[in-house]
Amino acid sequence: MKLTPEQIQQLYKFTRQHYVEHYDMQTELVDHLANDIEQIWQEKPNLSFEDAKKRSFKKFGVFGFMDVYGARQGELQKKYMKILWQHAKAWFRLPKIIATIAFFYFFYTGLIEYGDSFALSIIGVVIVFGLVKHILLLRKVKKRQKLSGKKWLLEDIIFKGLFLGGGMIGINLFNIINISSPEVYNIFWAIFYAAIFTIMVVYVYISVEVLPKKAEELLIENYPEYKLV
Description:
elongated; 8 helices; mainly alpha
């Protein structure tokens, strides 16, 4: 006995009622519920759809879909932090290492010559650039979501989560420099902060340029319904 299209839609509605708002996660749960309900019907063919659905849902435990939801979110976060690391390593190999060295030298000479004011200016510029780019990306996502009526967990992780981590790094670094760094940098301090700034720039660039494109590619590949505006 197979579920009808109407019953499948009821399962989608059921997941939304239980606070699962992302379409890709809804699809996974609906697929799981549908397969389980059909298996239940093999054992008890006279059981109604509602009763079979309740039996299937009870198997998720006290917290319902939240455990599965959290586990899936963790998997996606780990996956994309791994991609972030892979792209970050590329900046320390040819040919990108040339740009990395150029960034480092620029920061080093600026710190030696201008000291604390240069350091704070660099952090401010990077944070403002990242935030502006991030806002533009979020607008793009919201526009697509409004047209399609669907949200995607993978989207939220890439477009919302990763850069927030970079923003916190930048803000904390700003506070550290403002409180504890010297006004005039010697060679040691200049090398140390130049390396930090170089890593921060690479992180922000990957977060707001590289990873969003990777997310789009993967979503389009796995979900034909996903279309970017």
